[in-house]
């Protein structure tokens, strides 16, 4: 059984072993109004169970294994004593995060894994994909002669060894998998091997005939690649992300079905390694899950200049693998009329149509739980809901299996939230504060609402929505790297300064987004965070400029001179030239800093001369 893990890109039932994969107060205010990591204020209430328990003296005890027998008629009654405080089904990123936090809280913990520790993210998802993207990024830079000449560098023709690239990805996955395993063993988490399932209230079966009990159970079984009907996957010429990460071949022409996170990242890899790519997207535009403005710019940079073409508004109704000397055949039909549109003949096809929860065979019927499109229904505290709409006592579900937000770090955050609850601390995770990233070159990142989502919310709830933007072209560090292509965009409420969403497209966008996500989690207002200081020259100043560009009724106005080039840009200005405004601001700042440097040098020369 693979653990519950979510891929950082976009997303059935299988009879094989449990394979799991994974595809959203002011900082200066008093603790009374502080919200930590999107938690409610109740999370700060003091109670004995909130104190950290050190486990350095913990004696590790292996659980007693019981044989399954005909006496299983007692499955419906909860046990009177328990083998563990917490059992986690699935040892992926979500399960791992929950297990480590549980041990920190003093809980005797076991984690069940039927495949390999790390789940999909580590073994067939976010980890090996980042290794391939690291290669594609370097290849893309070395192949860009104009870019290299701008640095005064001369580079001969770049090449690659396919097997060496594949080995890099595999070696990284192995290293991270071992790190996760060793971290749990070192802290005393019992790692149990076998397919896990719920046998009854507070009872779990794993392997062939082992039964254990626990006060609380977490299901963290993740997801698997979703393959639509009519598509025949052979693992060679018609593949999913599972197969693609092995990089057994680099086809001359590959069709990618779906233009979400998975599809975009693999298009980056394949085009850098020499493939031509054709996107097949069912919706009317590429990258439908992103903010429209970001999608438009990303398409201009990531798609149009590269060997990529695309078909939108069509379904791949049938895909046949290559065989007997014939290419992969793809039948396209209109997404609305279902009429035949075209037939493509390509060397390979990657199915990147999303992910499906892995929840079959988990014994959910034993606790009267009915899945919804395969997802396990939960409430805001990840407590499982049964077929009658009632909470199942002591049973939780995190990660891709519940479908709230199919990201590995979201699964981990949910697991930690559950552990907080079972140790007596009310903890509700704010999913709108959880960031996401697409690791293309350049990267895309986001947190919170898109602009259309925010405006719809504003219309319903009666508040105004404003937008601020900044450009990487005004950032000194980005220009030093010759990577000025990109923007940052913030959607916020001008009446109270609430940040509703932030979207970034540009150099290291995946790293920059966390200042915004933490601001949303903490409830930090724009008028407060715009006073924060950022080191110069760093990419973080892109966010600094973004926050300072915001206007609002509650703002602290630092500059009232309307003729000053540093004035804030209003959201209602006509098609503002973001880069021009910010270049002026950047030039002004540079002049200021140069003046300081000159004074310092003058002072030093007086002292030492």
From TrEMBL:
<dbReference type="InterPro" id="IPR050151">
    <property type="entry name" value="Class-I_Pyr_Nuc-Dis_Oxidored"/>
</dbReference>
<feature type="domain" description="Pyridine nucleotide-disulphide oxidoreductase dimerisation">
    <location>
        <begin position="434"/>
        <end position="545"/>
    </location>
</feature>
<keyword id="KW-0676">Redox-active center</keyword>
<dbReference type="InterPro" id="IPR012999">
    <property type="entry name" value="Pyr_OxRdtase_I_AS"/>
</dbReference>
<protein>
    <recommendedName>
        <fullName>Dihydrolipoyl dehydrogenase</fullName>
        <ecNumber>1.8.1.4</ecNumber>
    </recommendedName>
</protein>
<keyword id="KW-0560">Oxidoreductase</keyword>
<keyword id="KW-0150">Chloroplast</keyword>
<keyword id="KW-1015">Disulfide bond</keyword>
<dbReference type="Pfam" id="PF07992">
    <property type="entry name" value="Pyr_redox_2"/>
</dbReference>
<dbReference type="InterPro" id="IPR036188">
    <property type="entry name" value="FAD/NAD-bd_sf"/>
</dbReference>
<keyword id="KW-0934">Plastid</keyword>
<dbReference type="GO" id="GO:0046685">
    <property type="term" value="P:response to arsenic-containing substance"/>
</dbReference>
<keyword id="KW-0274">FAD</keyword>
<dbReference type="GO" id="GO:0045252">
    <property type="term" value="C:oxoglutarate dehydrogenase complex"/>
</dbReference>
<comment type="function">
    <text>Lipoamide dehydrogenase is a component of the plastidial pyruvate dehydrogenase complex (PDC).</text>
</comment>
<keyword id="KW-0285">Flavoprotein</keyword>
<comment type="subunit">
    <text>Homodimer. Part of the plastidial pyruvate dehydrogenase complex (PDC) containing multiple copies of three enzymatic components: pyruvate dehydrogenase (E1), dihydrolipoamide acetyltransferase (E2) and lipoamide dehydrogenase (E3).</text>
</comment>
<dbReference type="InterPro" id="IPR023753">
    <property type="entry name" value="FAD/NAD-binding_dom"/>
</dbReference>
<dbReference type="InterPro" id="IPR006258">
    <property type="entry name" value="Lipoamide_DH"/>
</dbReference>
<dbReference type="InterPro" id="IPR004099">
    <property type="entry name" value="Pyr_nucl-diS_OxRdtase_dimer"/>
</dbReference>
<dbReference type="GO" id="GO:0004148">
    <property type="term" value="F:dihydrolipoyl dehydrogenase (NADH) activity"/>
</dbReference>
<keyword id="KW-0520">NAD</keyword>
<comment type="similarity">
    <text>Belongs to the class-I pyridine nucleotide-disulfide oxidoreductase family.</text>
</comment>
<keyword id="KW-0809">Transit peptide</keyword>
<dbReference type="InterPro" id="IPR016156">
    <property type="entry name" value="FAD/NAD-linked_Rdtase_dimer_sf"/>
</dbReference>
<dbReference type="GO" id="GO:0009570">
    <property type="term" value="C:chloroplast stroma"/>
</dbReference>
<dbReference type="Pfam" id="PF02852">
    <property type="entry name" value="Pyr_redox_dim"/>
</dbReference>
<dbReference type="GO" id="GO:0050660">
    <property type="term" value="F:flavin adenine dinucleotide binding"/>
</dbReference>
<dbReference type="GO" id="GO:0006103">
    <property type="term" value="P:2-oxoglutarate metabolic process"/>
</dbReference>
<feature type="domain" description="FAD/NAD(P)-binding">
    <location>
        <begin position="84"/>
        <end position="415"/>
    </location>
</feature>
<dbReference type="GO" id="GO:0005739">
    <property type="term" value="C:mitochondrion"/>
</dbReference>
């Amino acid at each position: 059984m693979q653990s519950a893990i979510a891929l950082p890109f976009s997303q059935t039932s299988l009879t094989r072993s449990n394979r799991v994969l994974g595809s959203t107060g002011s900082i200066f205010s008093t603790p009374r109004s502080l919200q930590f990591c999107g938690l409610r204020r109740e999370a700060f209430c003091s109670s004995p169970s909130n104190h950290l328990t050190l486990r350095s003296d913990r004696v590790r005890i292996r659980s007693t294994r019981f044989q399954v027998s005909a006496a299983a008629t007692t499955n419906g009654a909860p046990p009177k004593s328990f083998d563990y405080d917490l059992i986690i089904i699935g040892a992926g990123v979500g399960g791992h995060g929950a297990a480590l936090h549980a041990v920190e809280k003093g809980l005797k913990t076991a984690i069940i894994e039927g495949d390999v520790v790390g789940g999909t993210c580590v073994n067939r998802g976010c980890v090996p994909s980042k290794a391939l993207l690291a290669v594609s990024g370097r290849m893309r830079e070395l192949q860009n002669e104009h870019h290299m000449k701008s640095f005064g560098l001369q580079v001969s023709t770049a090449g690659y060894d396919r097997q060496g690239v594949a080995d890099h990805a595999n070696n990284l996955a192995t290293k991270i998998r071992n790190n996760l395993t060793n971290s749990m063993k070192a802290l005393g988490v019992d790692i149990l091997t076998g397919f896990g399932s719920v046998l009854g209230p507070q009872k779990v079966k794993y392997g062939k005939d082992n039964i254990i009990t626990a006060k609380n159970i977490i299901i963290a079984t993740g997801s698997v690649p979703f393959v639509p009907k009519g598509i025949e996957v052979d693992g060679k010429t018609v593949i999913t992300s599972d197969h693609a990460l092995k990089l057994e071949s680099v086809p001359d022409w590959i069709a990618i079905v779906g233009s979400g996170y998975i599809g975009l990242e693999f298009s980056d890899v394949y085009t850098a390694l020499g493939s031509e790519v054709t996107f097949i997207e069912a919706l009317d535009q590429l990258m439908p899950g992103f903010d429209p403005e970001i999608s438009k710019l990303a398409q201009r940079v990531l798609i149009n200049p590269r060997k990529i073409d695309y078909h939108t508004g069509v379904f791949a109704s049938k895909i046949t693998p290559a065989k007997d000397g014939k290419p992969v055949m793809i039948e396209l039909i209109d997404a609305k009329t279902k009429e035949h549109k075209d037939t493509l003949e390509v060397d390979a096809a990657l199915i990147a149509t999303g992910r499906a929860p892995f929840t079959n065979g988990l014994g959910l019927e034993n606790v009267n739980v009915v899945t919804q499109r395969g997802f396990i229904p939960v409430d805001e505290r990840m407590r499982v809901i049964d077929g009658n709409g009632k909470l199942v006592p002591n049973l939780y579900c995190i990660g891709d299996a519940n479908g709230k937000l199919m990201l590995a770090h979201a699964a981990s955050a949910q697991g930690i939230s559950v552990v907080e609850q079972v140790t007596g601390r009310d903890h509700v995770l704010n999913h709108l504060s959880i960031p996401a990233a697409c690791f293309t070159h350049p990267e895309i990142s986001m947190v919170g609402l898109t602009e259309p989502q925010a405006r719809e919310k504003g219309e319903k709830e009666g508040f105004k929505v404003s937008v601020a933007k900044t450009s990487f072209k005004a950032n000194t560090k980005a220009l030093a790297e010759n990577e000025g292509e990109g923007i940052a965009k913030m959607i916020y409420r001008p009446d109270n300064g609430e940040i509703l969403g932030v979207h970034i497209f540009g150099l290291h966008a995946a790293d920059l987004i966390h200042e915004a996500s933490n601001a949303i989690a903490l409830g930090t207002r724009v008028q407060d965070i715009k006073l924060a200081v950022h080191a110069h020259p760093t990419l973080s100043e892109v966010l600094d400029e973004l926050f300072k560009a915001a206007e609002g009724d509650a703002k602290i106005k630092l500059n009232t001179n309307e003729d000053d080039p540093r004035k804030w840009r209003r959201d209602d200005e006509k098609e503002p030239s973001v880069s021009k405004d910010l270049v002026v601001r950047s030039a002004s700042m540079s002049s200021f800093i140069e003046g300081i440097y000159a004074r310092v040098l003058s002072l030093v020369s007086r002292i030492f001369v």
